[in-house]
Design brief:
Helices cover about 35% and strands about 20% of the residues. By secondary structure, it is an alpha/beta fold. It folds into 2 domains: about 15-95 and about 110-165, 2-Layer Sandwich (Chitobiase, domain 2); about 170-210 and about 250-555, TIM Barrel, CATH 3.20.20.80. The strands form 4 sheets. Strands 1, 2, 3, 4, 5, 6, 7 and 8 form an 8-stranded mixed β-sheet that branches. Strands 9-10-15-16-17-18-19-20 form an 8-stranded parallel beta barrel, surrounded by 6 helices. Strand 3 (about 50), helix 2 and strand 4 form a beta-alpha-beta unit. Helix 2 packs parallel to helix 3 and helix 4 runs parallel beside helix 6. The radius of gyration is 26 Å and the shape is globular. It starts with a helix and ends in a 9-residue tail after the last helix.
Amino acid sequence: MKKLGIIILMCAAACSAWAQRASYNIIPLPKEVKTDTTQFFTLANGMGIAFDEGNEESTRIARFLQQWVKEATGLELQLTAADKKSPVRLTLIAPAKQGKKSKQPVELTEQQKESYTLTVNKEGVLISAYEPAGLFRATQTLRKSLPIAKGQSVELPFVQITDQPRFTYRGVLLDCGRHFFSVEFIKQFLDAMALHGCNQFHWHLTEDQGWRFEVKAYPDLAKKGSVREKSIIAPSKVRLYDNIPYGGYYTQDECREVVKYAAERYINVVPEIDMPGHMQSALHVFPNLGCTGGPYPVAPHWGVMREVLCGGNPETLNFLKTVFGELCDVFPSPFIHIGGDECPKERWQKCPKCQAKIKELGLASENVKVDGDGGRGSQDGRSAENKLQTYINHEIEQFLASRGRSLIGWDEILAGGLTENAIVMSWRGTKGGIAAAKQNHRVIMSPNVFAYIDHPQLKDLSKSPRTTDSYVVSCSKMYSFEPLVPEELTKEEGDCILGVQANLWTEHVAYPEHALYQLLPRLGAMSEVQWCNPEQKDFENWKARLPQLKKLYDRMGLIYCNEIE
């Protein structure tokens, strides 16, 4: 009998050793985490996940959770629909009304639509949210808390997590104009974004070096405009090329596939057709839309091209409205990005059509300083040519508004004066964004020195693949960014800041593995800029939490930089 007791105790100890313990020290850090580490709920094989089977989104999220638990721990949970006895429950709750007699529906803020609570107690795991997006964010939190190890069970410390994002716009840009990336890779990219709580995928679809979006009205635009005859391999005073044709574009059906995949992960796809500059691939197919008539090759090298759409040719607006019309048919995004950056006016200054249009519109140059102006491909001051670009922007803004969409442009759109409802994406520092916010325009902060992940993340350039190397954007640099500066903006002006975006330009990033290396773990740093309040942020604490996230990267097959600066 004594021996039997010893055996039972040994078995109990072994079972306890097999159990893996969860940790809520995740990235990005939730708003409020109250943990009782003296008590645990044990998640075991065969337990049920209860959800509303009549709700398609809840069903999908429950399946995601089932898949993620199995991938991380090997445990197979069962989907049990609305069984209240299941130890894991997903539930949508109605927001409380201000007064008991109030019949007015409760209007949630954008942050509240992604809010959630996650409770672990003796009864199990309860995830509740106002909307499915909140349920999804909560299941990602639970996923990141799980140990990455196959075991007999998982111990979940008792916890009460209450969470919602700081900013409503939490974006990442992928440039597919310079280099083309497959739909399968883009899905992997979206999975990485979802893991970090991002909700806006900025898809840069056109460039001087390649047109990647199928326009059915202009079949040759993608077929011919997507292919450059060669690519630069040694950007210097003496340019060297590989002399290998390079191309690829996305059909509209493929774009819809990406939109659907993203939407299932509560990510909106913001497409960008960059105009009136960065259009040499389109001019290659339609040389009549340029100021000189061409010919124009699809650009084989990087930089700012002086060949741009002719601002005085009426066919230019017809072309753009056709393109943006089909873009709106494919992408349901409330935001459409028109670029507007790096558009030299050299051709417009000498073009009879552009000058005639300037005269027709009564545009005149003003010798005023425009905040956010300057930089590559721009002109200081509010020139008549910059105002001509504003005229084009206005026409496209009105067209997009008729389709229920809002226009986003890079901060160069400030140069000729902002159109009525334009959203400014501030990339040349934050001055452009601040200037736009002071004019009560919505703003997305994406300053190059903090948010450009095409730049190296390590000071020793020999430790990383070759990329844009004019300055280093380390994890600590990115983490230190604060988009709301009280000294610069009032409370009302600060409310104009929608959020923050990281940008991955691909002049020197040609392969998926390199793209992921540039992205990670810097997206982990950016995610806390996007999600967390300033008082929560602590870089040393972030570094201490990173190893747990890296284990998940490994499980997902994601490449990342293993050094942190």
